[in-house]
């Protein structure tokens, strides 16, 4: 299998992974989603079709009682990401969220039962997007571990930089604000990510293309390079996301590649 075909194959498989698959791997996700996000009432579908055609419409259109439930939830989560980043989770009240969203505080409870439920949904959504595209790599024994590592870095970086603000909460301070059960769900999903990247590193070591460093440390260092990039990265200034993914990949690869691996890279 060529490197290009390997890369294409991994991309095709990642497109078939959905949040439903995440829920099947993590039953607690399905239960907690139902518990915290079941609406009290449903609004009629008004703007959902427009939002699907133009995602920017989610942030441009003010609150309307006619907008669909799913669109309203996405807008609330987008507002929450910004406020939690700017003021910290403890510094934002449901009243603050309602004011920024453009509704009465009571309206928020049609979508989320508590402020913690909003935080949990923000973090859960990001973890699903990180794990979904790469989860199949844990069992992909026949694929090239070098290309698998490239794919993990590129996929994770895109999610991190597209949700740059909530990424800080996910890896720094937010977990302490979650209830024990919610925290366990997010930590379990993070453990899955760690397990996948370590498996890829181990696979490369077994094939003789990666140096026999501690795979746990290698995984931590690679994920740290990715997550910390959201501190300094600025869109349209300096490197592009694709260019940065290539730099991180090459930097990581040169640190663990054996002479045998260098011949095939």
Structural summary, described in words:
It is a single chain. The chain has helices at 3-15, 19-25, 27-37, 48-53, 57-60, 69-87, 94-101, 105-108, 115-131, 145-162, 164-173, 180-206, 215-232, 241-256, 259-264. The chain is mostly helical and 265 residues long. The protein has 2 domains: 3-28 and 122-264, Tetracycline Repressor, domain 2 (Orthogonal Bundle); 40-110, Arc Repressor Mutant, subunit A (Orthogonal Bundle). It is elongated, with a radius of gyration of 20 Å. It starts with a helix and ends with a helix.
Defining key terms:
Tetracycline Repressor, domain 2; Arc Repressor Mutant, subunit A; single chain; 265 residues; 0% strand; 69% helix; disordered N terminus; elongated
CATH T-level topology of the largest domain: Tetracycline Repressor, domain 2
Q: Structural class, from secondary structure content?
A: mainly alpha
Number of domains: 2
Order of helices and strands: HHHHHHHHHHHHHHH
**Count of helical segments?**
15
Overall body shape: elongated
Proportion of strand residues:
under 5%
- The gyration radius over C-alpha positions equals 20 Å
CATH architecture of the largest domain: Orthogonal Bundle
Q: What does the largest sheet look like?
A: none
Distance between the ends: 14 Å
Query: Please, what is the CATH homologous superfamily of the largest domain?
Result: Tetracycline Repressor, domain 2
The total of beta strands comes to: 0
Instruction: Determine the fraction of residues in helical runs and give it as a percent range.
Output: 55-70%
Residue stretches low in confidence (pLDDT < 50, at least 5 long) are 1-8, 15-19, 29-63
Determine and state the CATH class of the largest domain.
Answer: Mainly Alpha
Average pLDDT over all residues: 77
């Amino acid at each position: 299998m060529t490197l290009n075909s390997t890369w294409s194959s991994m991309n095709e498989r990642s497109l078939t992974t959905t949040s439903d698959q995440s829920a099947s791997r993590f039953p607690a996700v399905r239960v907690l989603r139902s518990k915290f996000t079941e609406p009290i009432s449903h609004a009629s579908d008004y703007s959902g079709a427009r939002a699907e055609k133009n995602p920017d419409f989610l942030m441009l259109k003010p609150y309307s009682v006619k907008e669909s439930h799913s669109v309203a939830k996405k807008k609330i989560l987008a507002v929450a990401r910004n406020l939690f980043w700017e003021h910290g989770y403890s510094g934002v009240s449901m009243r603050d969220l309602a004011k920024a969203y453009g509704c009465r505080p009571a309206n928020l409870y049609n979508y989320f039962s508590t402020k913690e439920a909003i935080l949990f949904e923000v973090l859960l959504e990001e973890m699903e997007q990180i794990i979904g595209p790469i989860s199949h790599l844990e069992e992909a024994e026949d694929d090239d571990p070098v290309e698998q590592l490239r794919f993990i870095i590129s996929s994770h970086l895109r999610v991190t930089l597209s949700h740059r603000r909530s990424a800080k909460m996910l890896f720094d301070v937010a977990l302490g604000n979650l209830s024990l059960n919610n925290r366990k769900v997010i930590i379990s999903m993070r453990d899955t990510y760690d397990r996948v990247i370590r498996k890829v590193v181990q696979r490369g070591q077994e094939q003789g293309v990666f140096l026999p460093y501690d795979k746990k440390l290698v995984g931590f260092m690679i994920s740290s390079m990715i997550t910390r990039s959201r501190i300094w990265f600025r869109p349209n200034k300096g490197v592009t996301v694709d260019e940065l993914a290539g730099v991180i990949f090459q930097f990581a690869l040169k640190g663990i590649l054996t002479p045998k691996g260098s011949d095939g890279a």
